[in-house]
Design goal:
The complex is a heterodimer of chains A (about 475) and B (about 450). By secondary structure, chain A is mainly alpha-helical. Chain A has 23 helices and 2 strands. In chain A, a hairpin with a 2-residue loop joins strand 1 and strand 2 (about 385). Chain B has 14 helices and 24 strands. Chain B has 4 domains: about 1-120, 3-Layer(aba) Sandwich (Rossmann fold), CATH 3.40.50.720; about 130-220, Alpha-Beta Plaits, CATH 3.30.70.1450; about 230-345, NAD(P)-binding Rossmann-like Domain (Rossmann fold, 3-Layer(aba) Sandwich), CATH 3.40.50.720; about 365-450, 2-Layer Sandwich (Alpha-Beta Plaits). In chain B, helix 1 packs across helix 14 and helix 6 (about 125-135) crosses helix 14 (about 350-365). Chain B has a 6-stranded parallel β-sheet with strand order 3-2-1-4-5-6, sandwiched between helices. A 6-stranded parallel β-sheet of chain B has the order 14-13-12-15-16-17, sandwiched between helices. In chain B, strands 7-8-11-9-10 form a 5-stranded antiparallel β-sheet. The chains are: A mainly alpha (about 475), B alpha/beta (about 450).
Chain lengths: ~475, ~450
């Protein structure tokens, strides 16, 4: 274990968080808040803690896969702890566990909240809450790699540990350039959305916070009603951008490069769009009779509701324009399945990922074929290429671990003795980084009903889900730390 | 610069390592073996593509359309040539192919013109040429040439009782009356570019730069042999041995080759009628004694097994006072090997990588200067570079005193139309000169890089 290298990178991560806190500080100054120096203080605290660690240069710069996993897992835990300080110090969230839950939910782009009334929070805290989504969406380590003078192939271990997907590759030969390209695309799309939101008549604060929530596929809103009270134009902009941020970023890189053939060759993106369209149609058909019986809901409204909700859930954002808790069972079940599935690998979304689900289905088809023709040779392919045994094994183990961890956390959370729907969907919603579930944790509810232990477990579930399980398992495994 | 490397064998990996260390290239590597590709991509900052270099799809995925240089170094000559041919059809880039079959040697010229290859490399031939050069000057551990062969950089070990022992570098010219420049000293695992008050010791490996005449003069003065060897014994009859034997026979050196495989011996007989071919196991010391290892003035271990080469050389060292050259292909324990006290070790993959690097760097830059020659010295810890000085070079028309150089840099020689000048502070560098610079900072492309 290269401890010095680990502490060096962690120092950078904490210091960078301090720098990020200057944005809400500016926000506090603009709105002339009661204690404007809250974020300046917290930011400086992070920098004071982080700086000595970064200045301590490691003697040995080499890093292996295990260091990559440990650094990434620790980074995300530390980010959540330090990021929770403003909530805790300002007494807006008096319990530290609650503050930690809220921040972990922010960074992991989950969007699950323990606050029943967010409108009373100062603007700077609301800004920070949403900004954590933006930071967490593409990842802190990716950001660091784009900036840090750490060179060499070692950085790929870090990116691989942080980025979602079963085969994280490079877009261009240099890791640094790859990280820069990813952030440029991310920033460009974010600016585009902010502009469209401003055109829709929102003020800059709301436009920024809602865009952060969309870009990181997070889901924190600045109103208790989430997105319901905004105009249909804003709702459609958010719907489309949620879907955009749920696509593999390689797709946009290919488009910019004018390699359209490569872009549309990505099987996962096609599958993702197919699933979205199917889900919207099925839900619309299912909810239309119910909604139109209740009142004056038109076909256009129905499609808007269902499109928004499907986009919000499959990309694991978690915004809501309507209380889907009241929808018929069939529509709700589709949403729960989408929660498990999640968005594309290489996007800012969470969940198991469309590509893994596609590979699993193909494996099942292959298995059946082999049972019928025992001597036949069949290969599972993705993007027209046969997948290696190792990749397949990785996907199978990932899905098995996902279910297993899901079960363990569900078991612990059930100690609180809440109803099945609440427990079940609370765990999916956190593990897949969605945010709201059904029942008591539905779009109008929140997670404050859970005990401190459950909140910690769910916060852990969010980080496990965001980092796709293994970095956290490596961190917790005693083998990693053996000398 | 955008570079594609096809084939991740020994040379391919070495090239990837060296090029990615320079940091400024976008490197994509292609190989059919997934596991090796995976390893390389994990260790260096490069992108990997699985597939055959001769497939258009693979090449396009690797971005051949935008690439500047394609280097084909797979194990197969034919595949390398085909890869270069296809790459040329897709994009007019510079292509480099490794072609090592001696049977293709004559056809090489033909390939080069018709296929538009920028460079053809043959590691075995390059290694053989290096060995041949050493055998013509057995006192040296390593010899590289600059200024079209007028200047040599020569490395030797200071024997006990030499007049150089405990002599300060600044006193050499005065005491021995030779116009040479000490550009590097290796002591143990450390390497220095010595200042004037550096004291030389017995056992140091010293690298000097001078004209060939001065080098010969200097070597005589300090009591080392200067005449070429009369005969040589080669163990292992591979491709390198054939090339080497040809070169040595031309220079009038007797060659004995010991080869185990009788069929190969027959082939060698046909190819090298003037050489003595022995069919037998070179690792049997009885055979070596029988063939007169004691009187051999040089011994070259060229078998395909590195460990065997090391053992053979160590044994030969106990039997003869002659020059011993050891070929090492694969094993990477440089420190361990150099502590064994073998005379000269030849790493064909390093030599090949160095040749290609020189080409890449020369292509990389032509603003004010470009690289004419490049050699790794001091066990790869430093580089000696020869730059062409063009009109707009940042150091043109300036005196050496007025240049503020980075640390670890030595301007060793100026070559002005064939006249070799040992630079003093008052000397001016003129356009049209070539300048030899020794530096411990690797990766320079431009003469401007030596300035602060």
């Amino acid at each position: 274990m290269n401890y010095r290298m680990i502490s060096h990178v962690l120092g950078w991560v904490i210091g960078l968080e301090g720098v990020f806190m200057m944005l809400p500080f500016i926000c506090a100054l603009c709105y002339r808040e009661e204690n404007p120096f809250l974020f300046l203080f917290c930011g400086l605290l992070c920098i004071v803690v982080g700086l000595p660690l970064c200045l301590l240069k490691p003697k040995q710069k080499s890093m292996f896969a295990k260091e990559g996993f440990v650094i990434v897992a620790l980074s995300w835990i530390l980010l959540s702890i330090f990021g929770a300080l403003p909530f805790f110090i300002s007494r807006c969230i008096p319990s530290f566990v609650d503050a930690l839950f809220e921040t972990a939910s922010g960074f992991t782009t989950t969007g699950a909240s323990i606050l029943s009334d967010v409108e009373v929070l100062p603007k700077s805290l609301l800004f920070w809450r949403s900004f954590t989504h933006w930071i967490g969406g593409m990842g802190v380590i990716v950001f660091l790699v784009a900036l840090l003078p750490l060179s060499g192939g070692d950085n790929m271990h870090l990116i691989r540990a942080e980025s979602p997907g079963h085969s994280v590759g490079k877009l261009v030969p240099h890791v640094k350039s790859t990280a820069k390209i990813l952030y440029t695309i991310y920033l460009g799309l974010t600016l585009l959305q902010v502009t469209l939101m401003l055109l829709g008549g929102l003020d800059l604060f709301t436009a920024l916070t809602l865009t952060f929530g969309t870009a990181g596929t997070g889901g924190f809103s600045v109103l208790n009603s989430s997105i319901a009270t905004y105009s249909p134009y804003i709702q459609w902009v958010i719907t489309i951008f949620m879907l955009i941020f749920g696509v593999d970023f390689a797709f946009y890189y290919f488009i910019i490069q004018r390699r359209f053939k490569n872009a549309f060759h990505l099987e996962e993106v096609r599958g993702y769009l197919g699933i979205v369209v199917t889900a919207i149609l099925l839900i619309s058909l299912n909810i239309y009779p119910v909604l139109s019986a209740l009142g004056t809901t038109t076909v256009a409204d129905t499609i808007r509701y269902s499109a928004f909700q499907v986009a919000s859930i499959i990309t694991t954002t978690g915004y809501a324009t309507t209380d889907f808790n009241l929808w018929p069972q069939f529509a709700k079940m589709i949403l729960v399945i989408l929660m498990f599935m999640g968005a594309c690998a290489g996007s800012t979304g969470g969940g198991i990922k469309v590509s893994r689900v596609m590979v699993l289905i193909k494996s099942i088809v292959k298995e059946v074929k082999v049972l019928v023709h025992p001597k036949s040779m069949v290969k599972v392919k993705l993007n027209g290429r046969p997948l290696e045994h190792e990749t397949l094994r990785g996907i199978n183990v990932f899905c098995a671990s996902y279910i297993f961890i899901f079960a363990v956390i569900l078991l612990i959370v059930s100690l609180d003795n809440l109803d099945f729907t609440t427990n079940f969907t609370a765990v999916v919603a956190t593990l897949s980084n969605v945010g709201p579930g059904l029942g008591a944790v539905g779009p109008t509810g929140n997670f404050s009903c859970f005990s401190a232990l459950s909140k910690l477990m769910l916060a852990m579930a969010m980080i496990i889900g965001r980092l796709e399980i293994f970095p956290v398992l490596v961190l917790l495994s005693p083998k990693t730390w053996n000398r | 610069m955008k570079i594609i490397i096809v084939g991740l064998g020994k040379v391919g990996q070495k090239l990837t390592e060296r090029l990615s260390q320079e940091g400024e290239h976008d490197i994509t590597v292609i190989d059919t073996r997934r596991a090796i590709l995976h390893d390389v991509v994990n260790s260096y900052d490069v992108m990997g593509v699985v597939g055959s270099g001769a497939s258009i799809e693979t090449l396009q995925e690797a971005g051949v359309d935008h690439t500047d240089i394609l280097i084909a170094v797979t194990g197969s000559d034919e595949l390398n040539l085909l890869t270069c041919l296809i790459a040329r059809k897709l994009n007019v880039c510079n292509t480099i192919a490794r072609v090592r079959n001696p049977e293709y040697k004559k056809e090489v010229q033909l390939f080069q013109e018709d296929l538009g290859l920028a460079m053809i490399i043959n590691p075995e031939f390059t290694a053989a040429r290096e060995i041949a050069r050493l055998l013509r000057f057995p006192s040296a551990v390593q010899i590289d040439t600059f200024a079209k062969g007028r200047v040599e950089i020569l490395k030797f070990r200071i024997p006990s009782g030499s007049p150089l022992c405990d002599l300060k570098v600044v006193d050499i010219a005065q005491k021995l009356g030779c116009d040479i420049l000490v550009c590097g000293v290796e002591r143990g695992e450390e390497a220095f570019i010595p200042g004037g008050d550096f004291t030389l010791r017995e056992g140091d490996y010293v690298s000097i730069v001078a004209t060939i005449r001065d080098v010969t003069h200097f070597i005589k003065k300090i009591g080392l042999k200067t005449n070429k060897v009369k005969n040589t014994m080669i163990v292992g009859g591979g491709k390198t041995a054939v090339y080497l034997a040809n070169l040595l026979l031309k220079a009038g050196i007797d060659v004995t080759i010991i080869e185990q495989n009788p069929d190969r011996c027959e082939e060698l007989c046909e190819m090298l009628p003037k050489a003595t071919i022995i069919n037998g196991d070179g690792t049997e010391n009885r055979l070596l004694l029988e063939e007169g290892i004691e009187s051999a003035e040089s011994f070259v271990a060229l078998t395909n097994i590195d460990e065997e080469n090391v053992m053979l050389s160590l044994y030969a060292k106990t039997q003869t006072k002659g020059k011993i050259v050891t070929k090492i292909n694969r094993i990477a324990y440089d420190e361990v090997i150099s502590s064994l006290g073998l005379d000269t070790i030849i790493y064909p993959k390093d030599i090949t990588a160095e040749y290609i690097l020189r080409f890449v760097r020369a292509k990389n830059n032509s603003i004010g200067s470009n690289i004419e020659t490049m050699h790794d010295i001091l066990d790869g810890k430093a580089e000696a570079l020869e730059f062409n000085i063009l009109k707009n070079a940042p150091i043109a028309n300036r005196t050496i005193e007025s240049l503020s150089l980075k640390p670890g840099i030595l301007i060793a020689l100026i070559n002005r139309d064939g006249n070799i000048i040992t630079p003093r502070g008052k000397d001016t560098i003129l356009p049209g000169d070539t300048v030899i610079v020794v530096t411990t900072n690797k990766g320079y492309n431009d003469i401007g890089d030596i300035l602060k």
